[in-house]
Amino acid sequence: MALDGVEQEYHAGDLMIAVPGNDYHLRTGLLTTDKSPRCADYYLSCSLDTGGDGMPDEYPCKLHIGKDDHFLNLCKNIIYEKRKITDSDLQIQDYLTRLLFLSIRRFIHSGTSSYPKAYLPHKMKDYIEQHATEQLTLKQVASNVGLGISRASELFKTTFGRSVIDYVIEVKLNIAREHILYENSSLEEIAYSCGFGSYTHFSRMFSSRFGQSPKEYRQNNTAYMPRKL
After folding, report:
1. Which member of 124, 156, 158, 223 has the lowest number of beta carbons within 10 Å of its beta carbon?
2. Bridge partners (DSSP) listed for residue 16
């Protein structure tokens, strides 16, 4: 790929960002077989007023996004909204586009854009947040990014300063706390729905994290609980 005469090699998961007036050329390399390579040039063109929203004025021309489900879904939703004829909403398109650029900013600030390996611990983090209420294991998290258990543990702890399992428990507990505040389910039901094997284990972890038992937490925050109809 060449942008304004500067050539860079792009791989799966790389995103090119250009501004109006940039000149770019897509090259697929030399053909070594009689079959043509399968390649498509997908792009999203938009204008965005960045004033006042804290987004950076300049973006690097190349970012490694990876196969991030959230980012890809944002792109798809923007395209779907643009295709609508009878139910088109420019305000929704505007918000989706802003979310897309905010996601890009997060990739830039987290350092995942500069080097593919830096993306892997963040992908593990996203996977944990999406599947935390399941009976999640370290092996599952590592397999999701194609790494062995030891390497995955090392990368995650180096990046976030905590172990994979510690983060899994933290996410589970934060989800459970929300359920305690805003649901009428029993504490035992909440414990199991958040992926804890027993209420005793849940209560011990909760007390250690928040300084009070689940029962005490609910009693001290009854004002937040929805009323039964």
Report:
1. 223
2. 62
**Cα–Cα distance, 220 to 46 (Å, whole number):** 49
Q: Compute the radius of gyration of the chain from its Cα atoms.
A: 23
- 3 state DSSP class of 50: coil
User: Is the CB of residue 203 less than 8 Å from the CB of residue 159?
Assistant: no
Take residue 43 and report the two structure tokens written for it. Answer: 């792009």
In which residue are the tokens 């999640």 written?
136
pLDDT in tens, 112-137: 554 455 578 888 888 898 888 988 89
The residue behind tokens 């996004």 is: 65
CB atoms within 10 A of CB 223: 6
pTM: 0.56
- The pLDDT tens digits of the residues spanning 42-56 come to 677 777 665 544 444
The secondary structure element, H or E, covering residue 184 is none
